[in-house]
Design a protein that fits this description.
about 325 residues, alpha/beta, about 45% helix
Length: about 325
């Protein structure tokens, strides 16, 4: 109890970030359903403790690489609602001036090197970022987020080999949400996922990705050790996505049951679990938590309204940033 009270501000910040992610995703889903958002997007709802637990162990100088299911990583690393929604709607005030959309948001000011629509596509970028840190004598750490499906990509094995040989400050964070698109993980991943990293001499851990305190405790330890040159590390985070593979994946019973989804939502929801703990430890009251949620919902609604009214990029920008001068 003493430890909880000492760190109450930190815990409340983590809870706020988790709710911000869930709220952002709820609004993004509504933008898609109302045909206001072009293209598809991939919801992060249910996995909030992974992004927040890891990113709360990082500073702005630390880097992350993200995935096609990347909104949670972006928000957890410090992205603002207004610029995020503008990007989703293709508006000029978005993080990438509306050209990145849902799957290519980057926020350099907070160390987010960008989301990537190619499965496992950012593994080389993250490892390169860690190599840059070592060569320049910087003490920043890079976290590479990817899903269980990306463990079948050959690039992962190439970069793990280099990272292990050169002792790079990188943490490979595998978000195992049980499914590779529409196929169960055990049907696409032979053997143990952590054993794959261990084969390269990389220290590997498995953690409950629905427990933000467990994720954060492990992350803080590994980040500190990576700064000291003890990396790389690998973490498999057991989690679950509440929505389908993408927002158009609505009728999912042919590959997973409604009972399974209901069980995760009712019994293993990371926000509900953490909320219950905060109340039981006397860190916050139910009324205070409700007020926080209402404030975040109001912020999101205002950001959506702003993005809807914002301007699109001018036509002459169509080839901007395509080539470097």
């Amino acid at each position: 109890m003493t430890d909880a009270r000492t760190n109450s501000a930190e815990y409340l910040r983590m809870y706020r970030q988790m709710v911000r992610i869930r709220t952002f995703e709820d609004n993004a889903n509504q933008l898609y359903l109302s045909a206001k958002m072009p293209g598809l997007t991939h919801m992060y709802s249910g996995e909030e403790a992974v992004a927040v637990g890891l990113c709360e162990a990082l500073t702005d100088d630390d880097r992350i690489t993200s995935t096609h299911r990347g909104h949670g990583h972006c928000v957890a690393k410090g992205a603002e609602f207004r610029e995020m929604f503008c990007e989703l709607l293709g508006k000029a005030e978005g993080y990438c001036r509306g050209k990145g959309g849902s799957m290519h948001i980057a926020d350099q000011s907070h160390g987010n090197l960008g989301a990537n629509a190619i499965v496992g596509g950012s593994m080389g970028i993250a490892t390169g970022s860690a190599l840059r840190a070592k060569l320049m004598g910087s003490d920043d750490v890079t976290v590479c987020f990817f899903g269980d499906g990306a463990t079948a990509q050959g690039l992962w094995y190439e970069v793990m080999n280099m990272a292990a040989l050169w002792r790079l400050p990188v943490i490979y964070a595998c978000e195992n949400n049980g499914y590779s698109e529409y196929t169960k993980t055990e049907e696409i991943a032979a053997g143990s996922i952590t054993a794959r990293a261990e084969a390269f001499g990389i220290e590997a851990h498995r953690v409950d990705g629905q427990d933000v305190l467990a994720v954060n405790a492990l992350a803080r330890d590994l980040v500190a050790r990576a700064r000291r040159g003890e990396g790389p590390f690998f973490v498999e985070l057991e989690t679950y996505r509440y929505h389908g593979h993408h927002v158009g994946d609505i009728n999912r019973e042919y590959y997973r049951s409604k009972e399974e989804e209901r069980d995760w939502k009712e019994n293993r929801d990371p926000i509900l679990r953490f909320r219950g703990w905060l109340v039981s430890e006397g860190i916050a009251t139910e009324d205070e938590i409700e007020a926080m949620g209402a404030e975040i919902a109001e912020d999101a609604a205002a950001a959506v309204a702003y993005a809807e009214a914002a301007a699109y990029p001018p036509a002459h920008e169509v080839d901007m940033h395509v080539f470097a001068d």
